[in-house]
Structure formats: C-alpha cells, structure tokens
Amino acid sequence: MNPQPQAAVGAPLSRVDGPLKVTGRARYAAEFDVDGVVHAAIVDASIGRGRITSIDTGAAEAQPGVLRVIHHGNAPKLPYRDNSNGSNNPKGRRLRVFQDDKVLFHGQPVAVVVATTLEAAQHSASLIEVRYDAEQPSTDLTEVTADEPTRYARGDAETALRDAAVRMDLTYRMTRNHHNPMETHSTIARWDGDKLTVWDKTQWVVGTQTELSTVFDLPMKSVRVINPFVGGGFGSASRCWPHTVVAALAARELKRPVKLVLTRRQQYFGTGFRPRYEYRLRLGSDRRGRLQATVHEIDAETSSYETFKENIMLAGQMFYSTPNVSQAYRTVPLDVNTPLWMRGPGFANASFAIESAMDELAHRLRIDPIELRLRNEPAEDQSNGLPWSTRRLRECYTVGAREFGWHRRNSKPRAARDGDWLIGLGMAAAVYDPDGQAAEARARLNADGTAVVEAAASDMGPGTYTSQTQVAADALGLAVRAVDFRLGDSLYPKTPAHGGSMTMACVGSANLDACNKVRGQAITLAVEDRESPLYGVKAEDIVARNGRLHAEGNPSRGETYQQLLARNNLPHLEADGSYAGPPNPERHSYYTYGAVFTEVGVDATLGLVRVRRMLGVYDAGRIISPKLADSQALGGMVGGIGQALLEHTVTDHRDGRIVNANLADYLVPVNADIPEIKAIYLQGEDKRADPLGVKGLGEIVQVGVASAIANAVFNATGRRIRELPITTDALL
Ligand code: MOS
C-alpha cells in the first residue's frame, strides 16, 4: 500500500481527553456510579512481624451502618492459584489476604470493615482491637543476610582491576522512594452471579484480570477490569495489590458492590516502592580514562515472601566500553511489603552510581566529563556482541553541550559564585531498555466516516489517548476528531502492561497494523467496485486523506469512506491488528539514550540545593506527539529532582513502621523547586525497533537526573555526595 501522509503524527496536539479531565467528566476508578455500593476500610497491622492472637470486632460491629467485619478468623479460603506469568508478580508466594494469622510487615491488611457509608467504615475500623504476638522485624538492608546473587561476568575483572593504572572504590546509597501518584489506589468490585467486574486503578487491566482470575479461580472471561483514567502511576499500579482482592472478597461475602479506597498513608505499605539500594562500584581505567574493569556489587531490599528483581545490571554491561566486567546483584529479604518498578526502574538507580563514578573519574584524571564518556563509547553491545539499532549518544552530548553552554563550566570545584550561592554545572548520560512485548488492537471504520480503535491499554498520564489517536488518524486518513481511541477495559484486545516505556511502540504498532488493514479493505473495496471512481486504479496508488480515498497525484479522482460504505451497504469495516514484539531482537540491541545537563546553586552557609536550569537531550526514536513528549520529559525530570534532593521513605527499624507515610513529610518537588526545564529530541526514527520507529520516552527522562544533580553539586561545592537524597545536612 501507499505510505500514508502524516498529518496528525508529529503535530503538537493537546490531549484529546483534556476537556473530559478539566470538566471532571473523566471517571477514575473510585468515581463510577455503581448501584447499591457500600464502603470498605482496611485495618492494617500495627506490628512489623508476628502473629495475630485475637481480633475484637464487637465495638465496630455495634456501630450504625456497619455490615460486616472480615478477617482471617472468618474469611473464606481463597484458591490463590499460581500466577507466576500473568501479572507482574515477582517470584515467591504472594501475600494472601486474611488467609492466616501471620503478619509479614507493618501495615499489612488484617481486617476490613464494610459499612453503608465511608465514615462509618473508617470510624469502625478504628474501633477494632487487634492483639498480636509481636516479633522484632528486620527492615534494615545492611543488617540482614542477602539471597544468592544473580551474577554476570566477562573477562577477568578482579585481575584487570588490580593491574589498572587508575583505581576507584566507591559505594553509593539510595533510599527507598514511593511513587505517590495523586490518585490513591482504589477499587470498586461487583459480582453478578459468578462474574466479577472491578473498576480498579491499574496500569494493566489484563494483569489485574489475570490476578483476580487466579486468586478466585475463575475463568478469565468471568473477570472484567475497567479503568479508563489513571491519576498517575509511575509504576505503582503495574501489578494487582492485595487491597483489590480485599474489595472483591468483601463484595462476594456481602453480595453487594464494595468500594475500597486506600488512604494516602495506607498507600505507602499497601502498594510497592522503589527499593533501597547499596551499590558498590569499583572501577579501573588507564591513564587516559579508558575503562579496563568494573566490579558492581548491588544490594537491594525485597520482601520476605517475594523476590523482586529489576533491570539494574544491564547498564553496567552495555553502556561503556569495558573489557572486564563482574556483577553480583543480591536481594535482601526484609519484613516489608514487596517493592515494584518505579519510573526509570533499575536504570535510574544504576545510573546514579555509574554516572557519578564517571564524574569522579573525570575529575581525578582532569578530563572533561563528556570527553571521558566519548573515550568509552562502545562500537557495539559488549554484553551480547550485537550492533546497536540506533545509538545517538554522541549527538546527545554535542547538542546538549552547545544548547546548555557546557563550555562555561569551570572544571575546578567551588569556582563559581552568585552572591551567597555556589554555582555548579553537572551532566550525566542516560540509558533505558524499553522492553517491547506483543500487543493487539482492533479498528473499526464506521459508515459515518468516523473510526473507533480499541486496545486494553492504559493512559496514566503520558497521553496514550492522544498519541494513539494520532497514529490511527494518519493510518486511516481521518481527521483527529473523527477517531475515538478506547482503552482501559479488559474486554478490548490484549496489551502488555502500561509501563517500561513500551505503550507507544507496542500498542502503537498494533493500532497501526489494525488501521492499515482497515484502510486496505476500503481500498480493495473501491478498486473492485465498478461504481467507484477508483474502479481499476492500482491499490498501491491510492491514499486516504480527510476521510476520502483518492488516487495519488490526482485528488479529484476519489470518494469518501461514507460514499463507499453506503453504496456497498456496509455498516463498518473492521480489522484486528497485532504487534509481535521487536522485529529483530536477535540482531540488534536497542535502547533509548539521553544526556542530562543541570546547573545548581548551593547556599554556601545553609547547604540548600536549588536546581537552576536543566536540559535533557534524548534519542528516543520517533516522537509521535511533541507536546505530550514535553509533558513526559518535564515530569520525568521533575521526578529525577525528587529522587535527587527530596524523596525519602523513612522506616523506623524498631517496629518496621514507615514514619513519613504522608505528603507532608515525604517530600516531593513542588512548583517552587522547579526551574526552567527543557527537553530536546533528536529527530529521527528507529524502524529496527518497531514499525512506528518509536523507542519510548517515559522512563529515559527520569534516568540520569539524580547523578547530573550530584555531579553539579560537586562542581559547586567540591563535596561528593554518594547518597540519595542529597540533603542539607550532608552538605553542611
Ligand atoms: Mo513504569 S515504572 O514501567 O510504570
């Protein structure tokens, strides 16, 4: 078929769902009107480990409006069938709500109160007396024996390190972070006989459907998950958490729809988090800064019952040319809830260690940090010997250095001042592995000239609705307003989780395939229809534009979709599209790349850090929706500023309690913390990655920010901070 003109793709559209959002008509999980709904409130464990010895529900049950209190003593046994593949559950034995008397972490759900009003449920929950046989929980990563490591090695890193002219031994510490999306996690569950419908905050309706079908031992088709709008996620909603099961269980017991909304506090232990890390990095280079060996010893927290591992090793294997690499990645099982991916998962932590260390090496060897990176730029992926699909990091450095004014940086620390502020410039490179997976979509072109595309995808904020509409509009030759892209329903064709920067590439490619097929059907119909002005024209000479098919180079010869379908008495044309995953993962290594530049001011007496400017330059493949790409980049870099300077989940190791489980004490960046931020995307596409040429943007924009800031703080002050977040007390 003729390639389609691209009118919508690449245009800086505003969100197509913007009007729904600003007028409050966009429905989030807890906002659906479900007849007869009653309200649930969770009672969570006030010890960090041990057993429940008794639960006194008398006072709660005596309250007006209370319908039921459910806990391990009266809950039915649930099948909890194995679900190791279907919903992002880490290896292990998932938490089984109300199935026994064990408490595995502080905040674990131990009972649920269901009442006719939210107030009655919450008040009654506070009246429940739970007694425990408490044990001392272990929640400190540094005080518990780690599991067997996952290892990687090439060459002989220890020997090469010993022989290296320059050696460094550096340990980086990164605190736990919580996602804190604005919309707290919530679920409405309703049973119709043995069919379950849930409206659930999730980044993956199919994953939640799979989890519920295994927990309750139901066929997949008996579970429907609906979630058209997600008020932020950053990864926290990419697996189904126990509270969703609690809501479904309560609804089944009560035989009424149940709504359960986690409080902000409960969200800190009811959902996952970016795990705490200790990352020891030893590196050896020659005198010109060329890496000879790196040794990575990585420890991360996980729960006692599941082993959460993420992609933290790859960056150390593929990013810089290094003949000898050795890695050991160990999880430490603790009495905590299970961690989960958070924006830029793995890479955002690995890059803090690696990119800080490169800055330390550059300083020691008196080499410009960009020059040092260029000297270590690999010709191919040394972890697997594959060529890069596209790797335009050199351009990221060149463009970034020019736009940012990198030449103005004084390589001597503590050399620039602005009044009370010490000024520093820092940069870091960024990489992320967008993990492409299979996806499906269905497109329908209606007789009225509009189209509907459906996929069980999500839009947690990046603008899936908009960017997918743009792809469909161009593939069908329709105006953007004539296309209705629908997502967030498990009845729609299957997609992978909305995460890992893969939605645009995977769902987009399936969407493109479905729309191309529908356009192909319309073209075939026209060229074979004696009454069509296009009768006899070669199919490959026809394009679709503005809802009309016409011969390329002869726009007057053609007809609208409406004319074509009406004459043929067709209510619509429909096709299923699919994407099988990256077309050649065996032949090319594909990653997204970036370079982050920042200027900070550090108050010389108070140790306050202010980010003054930030620029990110990205090689993310084709940009479908530039305005929303900017929104992504801004959000990702703001997230990086949070990781660098503010976000810090604090656990009291005496009882395993998170002490700052609220938005007053868990600090996130606010407007006053955010300077001028700019993102530049290298023009181009990566057709080896997928048919759309998209590589993905959502994660890469968070990666590298923390190290760029730490490196700028060093340039400003001469103080090297190897612990996140970088706080005032570390700088005093
Ligand atoms: Mo993202 S951490 O994969 O939601």
Secondary-structure-based class equals: alpha+beta
Outline: globular
Q: Outline the low-pLDDT stretches.
A: none
* Radius of gyration of CA atoms, rounded to a whole number: 27 Å
Number of strands: 32
Per CATH, the superfamily of one domain is Aldehyde oxidase/xanthine dehydrogenase, molybdopterin binding domain
- Mean pLDDT across every amino acid position: 97
Descriptive report:
By secondary structure, this protein is an alpha+beta fold. Among the domains are: 151 residues, Aldehyde Oxidoreductase, domain 4, CATH 3.30.365; 188 residues, Aldehyde oxidase/xanthine dehydrogenase, molybdopterin binding domain (Aldehyde Oxidoreductase, domain 4, 2-Layer Sandwich). It is built from 17 helices and 32 strands. The strands form 8 sheets. A 7-stranded mixed sheet has the order 3-6-1-13-10-11-12, with helices on both faces. Strands 8-17-15-14-9-32 form a 6-stranded mixed sheet, with helices on both faces. The protein has a 5-stranded mixed sheet with strand order 18-19-27-28-31, with helices on both faces. Helix 12 runs parallel beside helix 13. The protein is globular. It starts with 17 loop residues before the first helix and ends with a helix. The mean pLDDT is 97.
